[in-house]
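Input.
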Amino acid sequence: MRALLLGASALALVACGGAPDETEAPAAEDAVEEAVVDAGEETEPAQTAPDTSALDAVVAALPEDAQARVPYRNPVETLSFFGVEPGMTVVDTLPGNPWHSGILIDYLGPDGKVVGADYSPEMWTHFGDFAPEPGAKDSWPAEWIEKAEAWRDADTDASVGAVQFGLIPDDMAGAVDVVLQIRTMHHFHRLEDEGGFMTEAIADMMTLLKPGGHVGVVLHRAPEGSSDEWATGDSGYVKQSAMIAAFEAGGFELAGTSEINANPKDQPTEEDFVWRLPPSLATSREDEALKAEMEAIGESDRMTLLFRKPA
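Output.
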């Protein structure tokens, strides 16, 4: 139960700052070289280094507190690996400013669109003490659009929209180029047995995407040798093999994997949960020695997966 509650509370903690990791983020061209493509065929991302100058400029302009997160979140490398480009329509799950909607609004430009996505109202009822009041999520789309409108310049930035999983409107079907699931899929995974929420969300992503469109997943990675009972997502961690299997069962093709967001220093045991690490440091706020140990590890080891809807 503690892991379940901490899993929900991490929604509020995910934007918190932390000490920079000693590990430098790989360059975009290194990220491309690390891509592992399915069946040996050439697939996105392309095998030539993308031009990231426009995205570099957006990230460089982030405020100081957000800059502290850049070495952990590798936004240029990650969004480039996922094939996000100006003019696209991109769904960002659990959107924030800057992560990642604030960046996308500037980067996608006036021909692009950022669609914030929330978990379904039904899924939120399974968050225990962290579940919102009944009906509170009904107004989320309008509230998020109003908030995001304040982040954008009407002349130069992308337009905004909103959607909730489980409630995909007909006019959104086949309208999206990329869906981002960045540190969110563990909640779908851990609640699958409660109402098929991961299966539903993957089907919704298939509905949203254009033929050939992509889903980009970044997620805390459980060791493959850990038990399935522990690696449900309650601890924050899910096995990479389980995530690949779930998307493939939903009709997606694995287009590539990358170690952009890997951290080999993070070797969790089944006694651990991800929020022991920065930025949360949930177990060491009153223990300076333990805090230093967790900061030396840095943020979690994360899988980075690219899935494609068949053309």
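Residues 1-44 have pLDDT under 50 and may be disordered.
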